[in-house]
Amino acid sequence: MTAQTHFHNGPQDYPQPDWNNYRVRAVTTDARPWPPAPADIKSILIIKLDAMGDYLLHTPFYASLRKFYPQAKITLLCNKNNLNLAEHNPAFDYVITPPYEPGYDQAQSFLYAIELQAHAAAPFDLIIVPRWTEDWHHAGVITQVLDAPYRLSYSGNTNAYKAQHFPQHEDFFTHVIDDARPAHEVWRGMQILHALGMKIPPVADIKQEFHFTAEDENKIKTLLAVKHYPRPWFVFGVGASADHKRWPAEHFAELAHLLQDRHGGTIFMLGHGKKDELAAETILAAVPQAVNFVDQLTPRESGVFARACDIMVCNDSFALHAAATAGTPAVEITGHPANGDKDSEYLPWRFGPWGIPFAWLQPETCHHSGRMLADFRLDPKCIGDIPASDVCNAVTQGLHRWPKSH
Asked: Is residue 406 situated within a structural domain?
């Protein structure tokens, strides 16, 4: 079994949007004229209930929205896992989290929206749901209950699955963006800004952001001063949000052996949760000198740590986007096969790292090896078919192509 290895130089390698080839459509006949006058927008609510990596991908959007509406109060509604990342972001006046785990319970979202009507920033003039695909978290329900005069999201026909399973999606909004063409998630945020009337900056000026504290910096400095860790520093992001995105722990362990034999250095591990702990145990059993930071760092601290490393090796996960935001090159491992759907959202054109050079590997095809899984659309994924030797070669090339100074 072999893998295809691809190298990207940075965001300029992603397809860029055609700003003249989409439209903002009024959903109802009584919708107000679009775009709203900036002076009329006094309070904005952004509903972004997705994962931590998605939060980082939208930090350029948040920062630019603040510049475009300097006088407005901006509130972010996010899930509790993102609170550590968002709480010191100067783009927001308020960061709030729902008292439940966002998911499939529409009634919880409805009741919570009623509570939000009494929030300090309410009533809202503009609500934005910057999600191109399916609204699994019922952000639309919250939007409709709050009844802002401008409620913006993407239309219900961005993909066939969304059109089939979320037929009432557009009913929650006053305006929707019609654009079914694939684009990177960072460009999606820029598209919303463009729809609001903002001039889009050059790609080199569109940057993701961490907002560290002195305590974050000091904790990592203390951890790394415990002993001398030889360079290069390899950090393994062993976690993922779904099993079909998770490279087997045994492969990570084999990779650790290969890297140590070829380069020396130090293997570090990042992640959180029981599955990541088990993966770390597997790696430590094979390479006892590896350093386990699984469940030891907050998301912000993980960013400080990633900044100090030479290269990240990881699945499609928060660790990947933490490395990108911190400026550390990465090697991403993805299970979507080369002979699969070229428009799959599991390829980097959609959620890949932004702002860094990186490599990514995918299997040539799914070999039905017993490690084959599937995404929620039942498309086959076979991340276990990617051999550690191919990943090791990509890491070696990355070290030579993208050396970091310390």
From this structure: no
| 120 & 234 share domain | no
Q: Mark whether 176 and 295 lie in a shared domain.
A: no
Beta bridge partners of 330: 312, 358
> Does 35 sit behind a cis peptide bond, omega within 30 degrees of 0 on the bond before it?
yes
* Cα separation, 45 vs 282, whole angstroms: 44
The verdict on residue 369 lying in a domain is: yes
Condensed to tens digits (0 to 9), the pLDDT of residues 65-117 reads: 999 999 999 999 999 999 999 999 999 999 999 999 887 789 999 999 999 99
In a domain, residue 93? The reply is: yes
CA gap 104, 201 in Å, rounded: 37
Question: Model confidence over 359-376: pLDDT tens digits?
Answer: 999 999 987 665 678 887
Are 232 and 155 found together in one domain?
A: no
Alpha-carbon dihedral angle through residues 361, 132, 120, 97, given to the nearest 10 degrees? -40
The DSSP bridge partners found for residue 25 are 176
Q: Give residue 199's pLDDT band: very low, low, confident or very high (50, 70, 90).
A: very high
Do 233 and 364 lie in a common domain?
A: yes
Q: Which of 299, 354, 317, 308 is nearest to 87 (CA)?
A: 299
What type of residue is 49? L
Cα end-to-end span (Å), the chain: 37
Cα–Cα separations (whole angstroms), residue 31 to 35, 51, 132, 149: 11, 32, 21, 8
Question: CA 85 to CA 49: how far, in whole Å?
Answer: 13
Work out the number of other CB atoms within 10 angstroms of the CB of residue 288: 7
Structure tokens at 352: 């890949």
Which CATH number is 102's domain given?
Answer: 3.40.50.2000
Distance CA 329, CA 186 (A): 18
Q: What residues make up the domain containing 150?
A: 20-199
Q: Of 380, 307, 315, 300, nearest to 351 (Cα)? A: 315
Closest to 27 in 3D by CA, of 228, 225, 146, 177: 177
What number of other Cβ atoms are within 10 A of residue 164's Cβ?
A: 9
* Closest of 317, 109, 3 to residue 306, by C-alpha: 317
Last residue of one domain, picked from the residues 171, 199, 227: 199
CA diameter of the chain: 68
Structural domains in the chain (count): 2
Q: How far, in Å, CA of 298 to CA of 300, rounded?
A: 5
HSE at residue 378, side-chain half, CA atoms within 13 A, is 1
**Does the N-terminal peptide bond of residue 232 adopt cis geometry, omega within 30 degrees of 0?**
yes
